Structures are given as C-alpha cells and as structure tokens.
Amino acid sequence: MTDASIQTQTEPGEAQFGDFVALLKPRVMSLVVFTAAVGLLAAPGGVHPFLAFFAVLCIAIGGGASGALNMWYDADIDRIMKRTKGRPIPSGRVTPQDALAIGLTLSGFSVVMLGLASNWVAAGLLAFTIFFYAVIYTMWLKRWTPQNIVIGGAAGAFPPMIGWAVVTGGVSLESVLMFALTFMWTPPHFWALALFMKSDYEEAGVPMLTVTHGRRTTRRHVLAYTILLAPVAIGLGFTSIGGPIYLSAAVIMNALFLKGAWDILRRDEDAAEADKYKVEKRFFAFSLLYLFLHFGAILAEAALRPWGLGGW
User: Fold this and answer.
1) CA–CA gap between residue 293 and residue 37 (Å, rounded)
2) Tens digits of per-residue pLDDT, 188-224?
3) Sorted alphabetically, which Pfam families does this protein's record hold (predicted)?
4) CB 249 within 8 A of CB 294
C-alpha cells in the first residue's frame, strides 16, 4: 500500500465532506432555494442575474445554517429516533462543537453578505428566519407544545418573502400570500408524516400531536388545515403574480389534496396498521408535489409575463 493510498483512507467515524453537507439538511435546503428563487423571479422589477444567483445562494446558506443549529441542539433526540439516528452528530462523525461553529459562522456570513449584496430588509428577514427556526422552533416549541409544527412552520415559509424583498426591498400582499401558502401547508404535510412515524416521536419525548392527542385527533387536524389552506392557495391566483395557469393548477391540486385529507380522516387505525399506513404515506408524498407545483405555476406565470402570456 502506497503513502498516497494511506492518506486518502478515512478512519471509522471520521467526518467526510458529505457529512458536513448532510449537516445543512440539503433536502430542506432544496425547498428553501426553490421557493426563494420563485419569490425573487416573480417580484416586479427584477435584478441582475448574478445578484439573483448570489442572493439565492445566501438564502440557501442561511437555510443550511439553520439546519446545522437544529442538528446541534436536537442531537439527543436524534440518537433515539430511527429516522434521524444516522445523522452526522448522533453517528459520531461530526462533533456537536463543530456543528455549532458551522451553524453560527454560516448564519453570520449569509446575513451580512445578503445585506451587502441586496438590501437589509431581505437580510433582516433571513436573520429572523434563522433565529425563528433555531431558537423559537427547535429550542422552544418543538419540545413544549403539540402545536410546534403549526407555529414553527413559519420558519420554512419565509424564503419566498425573502426572495421578493431582495428585488423590491419590502413586503407586499403577494409575498405575504406566498408565505401563507407554505405556512398553512406545513401542518398537514408534517402531521401526515407523524401518523406513520408516531413511535419515533413518542420514544424521543417530542410532543407531536399524534403523541399528545392520538392519531384520530391528528387526522381531524390534517383535514381542518387542508380546508384552511385551500382558499389561501386559490386566492393567490387572483393577485399580480397569479393567472390562469396558476389558478388552474391550484384548483386541481387543492381538490386532490382535500380528497387525500378526507381519505385520511376516514381511515380506521386497524386498517392503517394492516397496510402500513399506505394512504398516509401517499398523502405525505403528494404534499411535496403539491407545494412544488404551486410555486412552479407562479414561476411559469412570471416566465410568460414578458411575452404577454402570463398573468391576468
């Protein structure tokens, strides 16, 4: 074995580049990047392409910083939950100290650079988003109340508002409704997950609604929030960033989402256990498509508007 081969080998438990990437929650970051980019591109006026790219990059880094701080604080419960015990900190590949340092460093970098590159309204919104997710949600709400995901969902709803502020320097009805769309979507999305991951949350002592009030109550809440979500999603279609493409997609997707929530409500627990929560898992997967298609339709309207084809 040569010296070069010895140097490239990794000791068991030693952190690799991929572990630090995982620390930033790339799957969550992808949603942050997409919704922030849509908010930026749909905003009136526009900015230089390089500035747009850099702004979205800063927002992504800020989202990743939030993920690192979340993993640092939640390492104790992540070790217990099957879904999370393979994460970098519980598995021992990244130390809590390194995760905290990365989270704080990237938080400061992303906020300052976004402020310098665009404006301090957008930077302030990004700073508040990081604080809300890392402190309000992770350190307080998540372990304190079964409404954790309802209030905490605000953290994931800010990116399109930040993207909009990068261009406009402020907040408007359109950006508030994009925020509201994601905010109202979050509870049914995560409660569907909690229905088939109840034991994980129960063992970790996280007061998810399924743990504190049971699956039957959670099913009712899924339907209730899906009903409340529909007018927000459809109402966005009548604003300046909406149009026939968005409105058609919103009507169809919300009809299907309501049907899925109704199917979840009608489920018998014995039947759900028998088929390993097939309906709930399908609803959870569809919820990801639901949000992607709504923001994709907003993007389509924005892309067609210069040719007089998008919008009203």
Assistant:
1) 14
2) 999 999 999 988 898 889 999 999 999 999 999 999 9
3) UbiA
4) yes
> 130, 25 in Cβ contact below 8 A?
no
3-class SS at 91?
Answer: coil
* Residues 6+ positions from 47 with CB-CB distance below 8 Å: 40, 55, 118, 166, 167
Q: At what angle do helices 278-304 and 173-196 cross, to 10 degrees?
A: 160
**What's the CA gap between 253 and 291, in Å, rounded?**
9
Q: 282: burial class by Cβ within 10 Å (0-12, 13-18, 19+)?
A: middle
Residue type, 244: P
Tokens of 127: 């700073």
pTM of the model: 0.91
Nearest C-alpha neighbor of 175 from the set 295, 290, 58: 295
